Automatic annotation (TrEMBL):
It is a multi-pass membrane protein. Keywords: Membrane, Transmembrane, Transmembrane helix. The lineage of its organism: Bacteria, Bacillati, Actinomycetota, Actinomycetes, Pseudonocardiales. The chain crosses the membrane at residues 24-42, 54-74, 80-101, 108-126, 132-154, 166-186, 198-219, 231-248, 254-274. Signal peptide: none annotated. It holds the Pfam family EamA. It is found in: Membrane. Residues 1-124, 144-269 form the EamA domain. Belongs to the EamA transporter family. SUPFAM superfamilies: Multidrug resistance efflux transporter EmrE. Its main location: membrane. This is DMT family transporter.
Amino acid sequence: MVIWASGFVVAKYAAPYAEPLSFLILRYAGVVVLMLVLALVARAPWPGWRQAGHIAVAGVGIQAGYLGGVWAAVAAGMPAGVTALVVNLQPVLTAVFAALLGERLGRLQVVGLLLGFAGVTLVVSSKLTTSGLTPLTLGLTTMALLAITAGTLYQKRFCPEFDLRTGQVVQFAASLLVTLPFTLAFEHFRFDWTPQLIGALAWSVLVLTGGGISLLFLMLRRGAASQVTSYFYLVPGITALMAWAMFGETLGPVAIAGMVVAVLGVAFATRAGARARSARL
């Protein structure tokens, strides 16, 4: 989650030097090249056409839909605190849909999910504002929430296991193809090639994807979808700590209390999920 949380810090670094979708196009292309080289060197197995289709669909939701929606919303003026609050409904939404699809949730797990969201609310409460809230920004943020929720559930159901190198080539190539028309329509591919932008791009490709996304996929392979996504409740708190350390942003007692509540929520949700899986074995 530390790696995942650093994505918001990277976005703050990159924002003055590149348009959001243009930056994501470079990120997707970089991941495709990196993973393709790793796959070819290791002679990694490639998925069949049917499995590749499932992997691509999941990737469009988890990558293009989520990242594109969040970055475009923030660029259009959506407050970061409100964005974090909306997208961190994901564990609750994932749990609801997972239950409808047959994944069993215990009472303690439900309590953990609700506690986690309460903690997130406390962490971002000092940054909540109605400035920048428009139908466009709310629509983009909601799209991001629905996209990553649907993508996570789709991957867990239809393609939970695949080689991470060849699978990510498929996912990010699909995300690039989906994002490119919107980039051509609304942006100009303008970049200010500063050390900050180069560093942000390198971190996005090598660490956020090579580390963060790969770990998420491994967790989805081994755990229930609702249990895995509950870890996302930790992201706003970790991001707040990074912003405090790197940018001098304030970190008040309410935010600190929210981090504690979020950690308790994740602990309840993950322990309850693990016990439920053990009982079924």
